[in-house]
Amino acid sequence: MEPSNNIPTPCEWAGGVEKFEQLTDAFYKKVLTDPVLEPVFRHMPAEHSKHVAHFMAEVLMGPKVYSAEYGDNALRHMVGKHIGKKLKEEQRKRWAQLLLETADEIGLPDDPEFRSTFVAHIEWGTRVAVINSQLEENPTTSEEQIPEWGWGEVKGPYEVVGSLFQKKKE
Ligand code: HEM
């Protein structure tokens, strides 16, 4: 989606699709050395990390690269990858914690507004992944689109004016 009123999308603010590719590349390398997560991801294909980056960037209102790769079935395909995996809360928690640690290491923006938006998506997405992973059949239809995650209630990004945080001028 194009930015409106000069406010960048969360994806743009983060540094674009390439920044998410950098994030997931570093993240899945760590995953393979983690005792809780390695068994879950042992057989992931080489392209997995790029696909997750493209999905995240698209959710955060970036270019529709994941949709372009999978067409009308993009969301159904993504949900389908979690069906039947029987993920546990311990694995979800480690996944989220490791991702956020990696975000700091690769220098994903750490301003309160971006991180609030990003963490909100991660909290929501990881919990949905665990719920879907208990199912045996994919409930998603081809009509359902990948969700969009905007700036939300924090209405960011903000800039510091004097000692105050104020909404960026439009
Ligand atoms: C915000 C949270 C999450 C997002 C955005 C996400 C995204 C994705 C995407 C896009 C795929 C499909 C990749 C493709 O198209 O090839 C996928 C697959 C998968 N995800 Fe997730 N995921 C999330 C959470 C989790 C969690 C918490 C776990 C486990 C702890 C998990 C485990 C898996 C597994 C095992 C696959 C299949 C990998 C394979 O192809 O072998 N996901 N995920």
Automatic annotation (TrEMBL):
Q: Which Pfam families match?
A: Bac_globin
Which positions bind heme?
H51
Task: Spell out the molecular function terms from Gene Ontology.
Answer: heme binding; metal ion binding; oxygen binding
Q: Supply the alphabetized keyword list.
A: Heme, Iron, Metal-binding, Transport
Which domain of life, per UniProt? Bacteria
Protein name as annotated = Globin
Taxonomic lineage:
Bacteria, Pseudomonadati, Bacteroidota, Chitinophagia, Chitinophagales
